[in-house]
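User: Hi! I'm working on a homework problem where we have to compare a predicted structure to a textbook description. Could you give me the structure for the chain below?
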Amino acid sequence: MLTSAYSAGVLGIDGYLITVETVVKHGVGRFDLIGVPDTAVKESKSRVQSAIENSGFVFSGGDILINLAPADIKKEGSAYDLAIAVALLRSMGHLPEEIDLGGSCFIGELALSGEVRPADGVLCRVMAAKNAGKRVFFVPSENAREAAAVPGTEIYGAPSLAAVVDHLTGRAALERTVFDRDSFERERNYSAIDFADVKGQEAAKRALEIAAAGGHNVLFIGPPGTGKSMLAKRLPTILPPLDFDEALTTTGVWSAAGLLPAGVSLMTERPFRSPHHTVSAVSLCGGGAIPKPGEVSLAHNGVLFLDELPEFGSAKADSLRQPIEDKKISVVRIGGRVTFPSSFMLVCAMNPCRCGYYGHPTRRCTCRPDDIKRYISKVSGPLLDRIDIQIEVPSLTYDQMADTEPGECSASMRERVIAAREVAKRRFERDGETANCNAEMSEAELRRSCELGPDEKDLMRTAFEKLGLSARGHDRVLRVARTIADLDGHENITVLDIAEAIQLRTLDKKYVNIR
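Assistant: Happy to help. Predicted structure tokens:
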């Protein structure tokens, strides 16, 4: 008897519906599985047979043919086991024909005992199957909360194949998993670290507040031990909380990568990723035989922090140029092209030289001029041009270190950031823009919202000519100035706003003579 059941696959973070077709007929006992399966899918024949037998059903003899459609896409992984088992049970007569399987989707790996094991990318799979018209989903119990976040679905966490059959036949219903939107709003929180812990460094804090308000990229440069990493780790605490759509997309990326913690429905904190400088290009940008998201995608809607930037090497650092601009990254492999989202804030930190003390007021630099030049030149001009804010983080004085008064807390800084973003959001809505922050403004919006008066134009002309700004650098200065104006409540960009934006942009020019 021919039976069809449905599952879902995932390629990158994009899911697609899979039709599982099974035919059982009299024969010599052949068991064929077709539809471009990989090794894990081929091995499902043994897992499914053992799971059916250990769930109390007789595995009928004869010839068995299983087809996974569409046949032109390679099927990878073990998440199709449950759908294959359900379809076989119908073909073998263990499930009544009047049970409608057409509106349901089955996702999960089967253990030999019949238990349903968790799978990667369940959120992506459920979203794709829902868009294809499926409404009822049977997923591993560990993935049920994650799947329930997709609106318009009916999710059942399946502990075992036998429990799924009992639910379908009406013998014992599974408990439906419901996503609590109010609970998601309540659970949105921030980590325990706080800007109040940072001593001194008021200029760096101001720079990060501007960066958070406008979504701008940041480079910290300074000697060892000045708090560059400490400042970067606290940036997520002043960013606006994830909204539902952002949380859904971010969770989908982590789910596809297999990094979503068990039992989590949606991520409630903005991600902070800090790869070591020995990270491979594939780990940074994504890829592999089975393409997985890299660090630039795991940081989607959050912060990507590159400490010791020159040590990453030019090739890896420059590979960030395209995702910084496009907010997505495409990985091409033999099997095709996979696109991952990569809308992140880039924060980098570096020493001014290899020993770390070039320009230090009290410590002597032991590097030769050629060594300093080689070290600084590891960071390419095109990458620096894409970093809006470049700020020195100097060593603290003893009085600053001995000060026991806490600094301004993250909560108060976050309030100003959210208020500035709301100002920008209203402006974008008025102008029909789709940008989320000032750093993403289109050229048309830049012209509309960054009109300058005579004094402001004179200052920009002076900066452009004396600092040798590129066209991109010129526009990024304007975007930062627009953010500063939003933070300080200025309807139009003022000379002071431009002056501060230029001051935050001139760090690379300090080292121009040794580059």
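For your comparison, note the following. The mean pLDDT is 89. The radius of gyration is 28 Å. Good luck with the assignment!
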